[in-house]
Write a structure and sequence with these properties.
heterodimer, A: 136 residues, Fumarate Reductase Iron-sulfur Protein, Chain B, domain 2, 9 helices, 49% helix, B: 803 residues, alpha/beta, Rossmann fold, FAD/NAD(P)-binding domain, 5 domains, five-stranded parallel beta sheet, 30 strands, 18% strand, globular
Chain lengths: 136, 803
Amino acid sequence: MADSMWVEPDLSFVKQLKSLGGDTLKKCYQCATCSVVCPISPDEKPFPRKEMIAAQWGLKDKLVGNMDVWLCHQCNDCSTYCPRGARPGDVLNAVRAYSIGQYAWPQWLGRMCRMADSGGSFWPYRWPFFFCSFLP
Amino acid sequence: MEKKFGVYICKGCGLGEALDIEKLEKKVPPKIKICKTHPTLCSPEGVDLIKNDIEGEGVNTVVIAACSRRVLWDVFDFRPAIVERVNLREGVVWSHKPREEAMPEEGPQVDEWVQEMAEGYLRMGIAEAEKIQKPEPCQLEEPINKRILVLGSGVTGLSAALEVAKTGYEAVVIEKEAEVGGFAAKMRKQTPWEYPYENAQEPVIGRIISEAEAHPKIEIRTGTEVARIAGQPGLYDVTFKPAGTKSMWDVMSKEEEAAILEKLAEAGESATSREPTPDAPATILKKNPDAERFGAVILATGWKPYELKEEAEETPAAEGEEAEAPKKEEAKEAEGETPTAEEPSYEHLGFGKFPDVITNVALEEMAGQGKIVRPSNGKPAASVAFIQCPGQGSDEDFPYAAAITNMVALKQAKYVREDNPDAKAYIFYQHMRTLGQNEYFYKSIQQDEGVFLTKGDVVSVSENGDGTLVLEANDTLLGGNIQVGVDMVVLGTGMVPVTRDEPILNLAYRQGPGFRDLDLFDGYADSNFICFPYETRRTGIYVAGCVRRALSIQECREDATGAALKAIQCLESSNRGVSVHPRSWDMTFPDFFFQRCTQCKRCTEECPFGALDDDEKGTPLPNPTRCRRCGTCMGACPERIIGFADYNIDSIGSMVKAIDVPEDDDEKLRVLVLACENDAYPALDICGLNRLSYSAHVRVIPVRCLGSVNVVWIKDALSKGIDGVLMIGCKFGDDYQCHFIKGSELADIRMDKIGEALVSLALEKERVQQVQIAIDEYEKLPGIIAEFMETIEGVGPNPFKGF
């Protein structure tokens, strides 16, 4: 059907978010306390609840490139009030960290900055770029 | 026994201040020589006063005018003397605020109406005490057998047998299948039952089986079914037969019996003297001399999978059909009988159409035997969707699904992940019910990154073209409608209690081979869920496990303990000649004056527990240990030939006749209240405790159940000039609260009929009313009584007054 979204969970994306500091993300049970306590959550499409389920389902496309995660200023009210300890603030942080790795130029620099990330940053074909960066 | 009366009036708890006790004493009939008062009758001195009279004066009938019969019964227990309690405290003084304006100018400050009420109750109490007899324990002619028969050898059956055996009783377990263990034996894992409640655990059934098989007091017989259970608790005569065969001792339903008798009559054979055959089995009156004797029965026959309607395959795919064939055979086997209700169809889910759409039961069997693979090609399943609700706009679960169905989905999602670390398991639900500690299980499964949960309305399951399936769901938590591609779909179908379609017990009872009115409980073998778990409408037969309610294995084990204890309690009550729950102290059994019986069979039909069979002529055949002493037979009998030693037509009738009816005072209407002693009478007492006042013109008589109310009492009351009769009983209907199941409902039907009779006597129908009340609705009672008094004031005094 036209108004139906095809969903393909990305298991590795979930694992990466977990390793980037979002290890609590699977605890969310969608009560929306986070969206209610969030001081900057908009009335239309409130966050971070929708980001939480997208993270649980490994919906990379919905999160990477999502502007909402950048609105968050990490006050951590959501994490404080979350009844299940899912720490939405930390999960948004992990999403941002992942996005930096994805969009930063040069990407390797972004990924290097992402301290917690250990996966796939130093692929051999990127090494030339690494050396180039030291050129005057 | 010559009765020697002693009347004792208490002055404590405010009785002495609110009543003129001296005047009350004078109302005691002069033939009663012993009438004493005491400032606190329940004190040791007060009790000694009564005891001394019993020992010294030979008093054997004690009338205590003090508090309600519901309190201090242990203090005022003077058995073997007859004790009659007159409720002056809760029923009169505490529940009737004296009217300021009615206080006499001199003499004791007592409201005349309240005083009259106390005098009325005292007279009624003495009248009742004159009519009742000391109950004798109801003893069977034969010694009772204490072996317990357990039907079903699943977790519940074997656990019950173990509980029975550990308590020192013998248990015999009957299993229809060739193997013991039931479905639990086929499972890979079970939902958690001990701390930390986070992971599915090894099934306990193996341990239970070996423990039960090794126990010297347990005998297990496989491949066996019950042909008939005849008799009564303590004396059940049970005939067994090999499973799946016909026996000459099978119990026929009424329709079957009528058909067979007709056939025999055509063939010129006598119905009674014929030799029973498997095709024309013996009638319930015939006794099998070779039957085995048992004391009580525990029904733990469990459940069977809910059969989904299969969708016909449109274009038969060779691959799919192969896998389909054995399943269809299984389905046919299980069908056997026609389903009772119209089964819903779930065409959109493609069950039967796509081989990879299976039920949770099929998945569990597969998981128990090995890895989870796609039925269509035998390859491992990389993604599996669990559907909890059929959807399509409705948020109903599959029929017979319950909280356990959700738990099973969580457990099976974990199987998928265990078998393949890259696999994905989706759960689509409308309600995720993980009760109590099970929430820890939910939390732990949710932690698995490959388990994806969402609420959602499943719209369709269709083919993807590459042999996989596409599931479409609307209104999901992901913010809209979604589609996911999956290898397999598992439907969360429910567990159907076997009692829905078959009587199972095959009781040789006049009321039929199974339980009655199970459609009220969707076929679950239950009688009164909240108040009396494990009880059924057949005394001596207790149910446990999934035949009673869809339960987890751990809950089944707890259930088994409950039912085992109930069965033992039944044996130990029958043994002493007392009733089982709820009148578990009651020694009386209804006496029948058979010479005047007209064989109308109302008692046989209306007994909620099927205690009465009948002989060829239709005369009732009592089975004392099946009886729970509610008195419904007594209320039903038009000849009024049924009664108990301490509760009968005459005893209550005499109380009605003892009510004072002022004939010259239009202000003083008289209303008789017949209050059920299970809920209504306690509620009236609670009114007293809370000092809620109601009209002083009512006279309350407690009855065992509204079902025991014989219309003759109402006729007596109205012909005596009493202006109205209010019956207060338990709620009836689908969610009835009647302790005797049908009592208040029967009373309602009978009162409908008496209404017509009243009209023919030129009396208004409104004079007799029935109201339903629960014990916690006591605060409504003063209003209900006031409203009824208003109605009676509206129709005016009873024209029969003074006749």
